Amino acid sequence: MTTPVAQIVDAAAYAQAVEDVVAAAAAYYTDGTSPLDDDAYDQLVRGIAVWEDAHPDQVLPHSPTGKVAGGAVEGDVPHTVAMLSLDNVFSPEQFTAWTASLTRRIGREAARFSVEAKLDGLAVAARYTQGRLTRLITRGDGIAGEDVSHAIGTLEGLPEKLDQPVTVEVRGEVLMTTAQFEHANEVRTAHGGQPFANPRGASAGTLRAKERAYTVPMTFFGYGLLPLPDTDTELAERLDGLAHSELMALAARLGVHTAAATAVPTVTATTVDEVLERVREIAALRAELPFGIDGIVIKADLAADQRAAGSGSRAPRWAIAYKLPAVEKITRLVAVEWNVGRTGIIAPRGVLEPVQIEGATITYATLHNPADITRRDLRLGDHVMVHRAGDVIPRIEAPVAHLRTGDEQPIVFPEMCPRCGSAIDTSQERWRCEQGRNCHLVASLSYAAGRDQLDIEGLGATRVIQLVEAGLVADLADLFALTREQLLTLERMGETSTDNLLAALATARTQPLSRVLCALGVRGTGRSMSRRIARHFATMDNIRVADAEALQQVEGIGPEKAPSIVTEIAELTELIDRLAAAGVNMTEPGATPPAAAIDDPAAPADTPDDRPLAGMAVVVTGAMTGPLESLSRNQMNELIELAGGKSSSSVSKKTSLVVAGEGAGSKRDKAETLGIRLAAPDEFALLVADYLP
Ligand code: IVH
């Protein structure tokens, strides 16, 4: 794995980078907000280190390198023993190199390693006096921290009383599990607060907040146990001699929740390979864990090995963090789509400015439901923290509220089902189309009745809903079986409307095959593809006997699409039979079937195409007038194809003719520049007169 480094080109860029990192670290360690995600922060810090290596005489005094918490925070309660940070490795090679340097330092190989989860929260020291929890201190700058004793009693896993009356300090990480984070944001927003962007920020903000009207629980995971100045000598000596794994076992016996006893149990390993094996195992577990981890901590287990390795001013030399790739990135929410599922559930989905997480490009993230959007106070244009681990569907954790510019727009909730137009049942958190499972039916019937398909006048979504609700129609063929009597039973259906609808259905029966095919809604066959298929095969029977190979003769159908069309047509057998039996036309006027499709060796070979637009690519632009005035764009395209041409929406060198009506703009200009033939609507109407509807 490579470790990306921000490129710093000169002293000014260096000074800016130092300022940015210090500001981000201050925000991160104080209230859990930060304008940078972890990757962006790490890259900048590495860039600073690279620049400082090359310009050691120009290092700024407030540079974050070599300092705990980037030098951003201070506290007023001194630590009895410095609370250090950890150095990082990012790959097996770097880890192997680290063990080699450790071996050199100790003068022998470390006897064994303890391998545990690196919990993604913030470090605290918990002081127990004779078994009573008396003080809680943040890490601060490592030398002194802030007193956060007000949080005592809100940290699961950190008892107020130990099982033995000992004086010790327990060190560990405070974090919010996924469930605690969700609960915290619910409570916080219910109190009018902004939701936290992620669990880490939530625990930092919560731990430091005093005098809040509410408390939200967090969890403590211990990873260190040490004597305090008041600890009795015998115990202090004993603790000093214990291996890390033994200390953790002791902490657990005292009643403290330790990192060792989580869903990622700590193991001890003796070889590099064993450690790396465990690193892989933990990395694989990560997506399923109920709390966030950002790596694995590997520690020389024996006290003697630790002592021999020693510590630097920022980090111990006997331990290392093997960082896992960040699973959270900040990006922007550009749109919200509303998709209707099979059961009618209307689910929002966030469209993101694409962002790379763990090597995958993320463009969508789930948003649960409208209540959740409101709770999180999400807005379009917001910077959002996106979380994706393993193959789990990416989710938006929350907006990064302090990055708001004021240009963010509210997310508009649908007022009608976006699929079928029915009312929405909003009584539950998950909104549902009132048609439930019938939603799909209403949508597909409305589509089939639409202007570009069967063009059944008087059959809009409202009427379709009425027919479905009355139980009169359960599929497309049922429409053509409707009787006058049945229609008259419906509300708001008088004699005239009934007769009009029956007449519209009679006309629909005569529509060309291309429109019938389109109305069936076979995936991958929209309007123009349906026309191509219909023209190619001429009859529905020919389409039904065509195999994938035969379908690939149609332009635009490749080896992937062909089999799925074959399967869907086969699934529609019964429906197509019933439509044909109801008198629906199943042929394409003017089309001649291909020789192969009719499976007749004596069939004549294709005759040359003598239609006026044969072989031509035609683009229509501007408003049509004269005989073409009433034609929709789709009907114009149908006309072009009937006359042997291919319709296209953009002008290129391949275009043969541009039909330019009133108000034609850039397409006309482009045609002129490219020297492409232009025709006015009237002129074009004459050219295709034989094919006009
Ligand atoms: S040991 C002297 N163990 O990671 C050893 N730290 O990036 C110092 N952390 O400051 C820490 N899980 O806040 C240790 N299992 C674990 C940890 C852990 C998370 C945090 C801790 C530390 C930071 C360094």
Descriptive notes:
It is a single chain. 35% of the residues lie in helices and 19% in strands. It is of the alpha+beta class and 693 residues long. It folds into 6 domains: 11-71, Helix Hairpins (Orthogonal Bundle), CATH 1.10.287; 77-323, 2-Layer Sandwich (D-amino Acid Aminotransferase, Chain A, domain 1); 328-410, Nucleic acid-binding proteins (OB fold (Dihydrolipoamide Acetyltransferase, E2P)); 437-508, DNA polymerase, domain 1 (Orthogonal Bundle), CATH 1.10.150; 513-599, 5' to 3' exonuclease, C-terminal subdomain (DNA polymerase, domain 1); 617-691, BRCT domain (Rossmann fold, 3-Layer(aba) Sandwich). The strands form 7 sheets. Strands 2-12-11-3-10 form a 5-stranded mixed beta sheet. It has a 5-stranded mixed beta sheet with strand order 5-4-8-9-7. Helix 22 (633-642) links the parallel strand 22 and strand 23 (646-648). The radius of gyration is 35 Å and the shape is elongated. The chain binds 2-(butylsulfanyl)adenosine (IVH). 2-(butylsulfanyl)adenosine (IVH) is lined by residues 84-86, 116, 118-119, 123, 173, 223, 259, 297, 316, 319, 321.
